[in-house]
Predict the 3D structure of the following.
Amino acid sequence: MNLKDLADLLGLSPTTVSRALNGFPEVAEATRKRVEEAAQLHHYRPNTQAKRLATGRAMAIGHVIPLCSQHEIVNPVFADFIAGAGEVYAREGYDMVLISVPVEDHAQAYRELRAKRNVDGVIVHAPRAGDGRIALLHELGLPFVVHGRASGVDLPYAYVDVNNARAFERATNFLLDLGHRRIALLNGVEGMDFALRRQRGFARAFAARGLEPDPSLMIAGEMTEAQGHDAACDMLRRADPPTAFITASLLSAVGVRRGLWELGLRMGRDVSILTHDDELGYFRNGAEEPIFTATRASVREAGRRCASLLLDMIATPDMATDMAPATQLMEAVLVLGASTGPAPDRSVPPMTTAQGLPL
Amino acid sequence: MNLKDLADLLGLSPTTVSRALNGFPEVAEATRKRVEEAAQLHHYRPNTQAKRLATGRAMAIGHVIPLCSQHEIVNPVFADFIAGAGEVYAREGYDMVLISVPVEDHAQAYRELRAKRNVDGVIVHAPRAGDGRIALLHELGLPFVVHGRASGVDLPYAYVDVNNARAFERATNFLLDLGHRRIALLNGVEGMDFALRRQRGFARAFAARGLEPDPSLMIAGEMTEAQGHDAACDMLRRADPPTAFITASLLSAVGVRRGLWELGLRMGRDVSILTHDDELGYFRNGAEEPIFTATRASVREAGRRCASLLLDMIATPDMATDMAPATQLMEAVLVLGASTGPAPDRSVPPMTTAQGLPL
DNA sequence: CGCCGCATTCAAAGCGGTTTGAATTGGATC
DNA sequence: GATCCAATTCAAACCGCTTTGAATGCGGCG
């Protein structure tokens, strides 16, 4: 059942039927009603491909996903983001097209996407400092929104980001206020922009008090449970162990906790843990009451906002050229859990306390 | 730059250019070469929508995802499956279209997908016993592959599944052999086919020895860390606690382990844990050596196989009608970790052992 | 009564490819 | 030299929708 069939059936021209179904004003109300009923009755749906070709709009948004050793899509943070974006697409009648491409072929992938015209816009995931994709997409004229930012890129671009620097500065201050001085930072992969900003916030809090973080307590890597566990075990066995950990993900925090358990240390007493919490659907930080003290910002909400923003940009193409692109900075909230507490005595003035007891 | 432009540029007809680029034999080699070079030079890519309309193939596979309170896509198992399928699609030039729809609207979603013709086939996720989607897709004539099976559906259909019953039967036997009798089963959501089969395997192992599992030790639910933790805490505090847990997911197993730690019990000594392991990219069961004893089957591989199977079906449409649909049953391997050990004495003949010491 | 304007409706031309059936060419055959 | 055939190439139709510009019908007005 296609448009022509339906038109023949109704004794109307395809033009009129098309207009009736698409809400054009020049169709008589009686006709529109008749057409709509017939369409309903015969389960008529316009052919997507034909519609797309005729209108020149793909009605689809592309997500190009790094296909590295550690496929990005299996990253739960990514999955939650996609879930949020998907809600918006579904509501607006857009399709979400996921494309896994080795990270070195991304430029080519974007070019093809553009030339083949099978998406109306793309979301840029996991930007790095100085990320080249932004310039490329500018050049291609393909509408895009970046999830995060790219330090060092001075082109204007639309983005939705969490104020990572501020979140981690506050987190660090919170621990410094509790008397912690040896604070470990388990960060995301080096070069990722969000990791960079978090590190900056971390360092800024120290600097504001004339202190300096210990570089040997700062590591970067994939934010997995294993990362947290291994780092915790390693660092806590050192002569001068940290009294607190800041982790970039709940998964890492859980790993640190496992490390503590194995070493017989109590979380929140002997060692504090403060984590960033993306509010993942499948890995929550407790139910009502948080388990871990955390900087909290919903990545799913970020997904929703990125998608909305992009669809807005697509709907009003002139906006893109006229004014500066829209940007959104989400503030993380600091929620208190049971994983943090005052620094244990031994660490206040290191090597000065009388009782040199092991924990 | 479209086909016509390119043809004009070359002084050829669109017909010849199209054929040259699509590898038809009736084009002179010299011409083909000339055309290919020009296409390369001018970055010509055929317009996706036009191609799809002309060929009647959408070159896209749909994944309709339940959008419940717990959005399925954020389930890491699902994400890994998608990653595997995505590899295959990328290789074959197919797009992957993710569509989030409230579970009660799935039927409508499939109908629309079919009528609008924007996918060539679909993957059915998370089948339930007696799942109605299979009959619907049959009726719609939309090619599909089920990830898993649907007990009680007697229509033929293509599927890729893990032999869940056998895997869990072996797992249960393994624990029974170690002397465990009070074994808890932390299963997936009730009604899910895979959960049903796992329960059947579990029960079968007991039955084969003339034993019966305790229903109060069998729970069903979302397979999260919290599920495992809460169930473990609850059950282990009872008068007659289990000596071993079988969990349907690594996440649940990790939750059980947390419960053990909190109660001061040693994993593999006081209480054994055996889990199913989907080999998730972001949540691994140890590195070289497994932490948990587990029935292991890669869900990512299942994704690859589902995708391949579906693309095969689409490539040879007659196959679908002629013979029985292809099916694949993957066997899980049982890998040994440090989370299992002999049942502690107290449980061999319950209430008979002399020393009634608390653990 | 003729003309105008408004409300509807329609025929036809795209959108950018693929595919059918016919036309052209050049060399081999008789 | 005419005929035939295989190898190439092309014009035109088609996929199913949107959209432009023109046509139609009809009541109101001068």
